[in-house]
Known about the structure:
2 domains; alpha+beta; three-stranded antiparallel sheet; Dna Ligase, domain 1; single chain; flat; disordered N terminus; 45% helix; three-stranded mixed sheet
Amino acid sequence: MRNRMCGPWWENRLNDAGFRLTNPRELVMSILRNTDKHLSAEDVYVKALAVNPSIGLTTVYRSLDLFTQIGVVQRFDFGDGKARYELNRNPLSKGHHHHLVCMRCKSIIDYNDFMQEEVELMKKTEKALSKKHHFKIMHHTIHFYGLCNECQHAEQKMIDY
């Protein structure tokens, strides 16, 4: 049996919440750890199926729900009818980031190259919201919706045509 203190942070969180690390959960976590994409449950399922043909879609959904409940994974709704998942503290990610979501092609760009003015504005906004609503802000997520560069060009070509 693996020493609990030697496991990754997410495994410790799972144990602390009273859950076992099962093979399907470990597989789902491995998939999330090895991507910087925002995967849907179906995306995770397809990747998991290639490794373990006996895994079920329900198992993937349950694993993702559990990981979300214990704060290991974040669930996002980018308006395309599919929940997307991203591992917190993913070694492939660039840390805290926001999302730019293309409303046409549904691509998602992680945005983390903040300018100092943006950081200051966000800190000021959080401080003001905290004071106004007597609310301790722990973290935030911001999504910007619009058109990516490729879709802007495609739209312009349609207009020019």
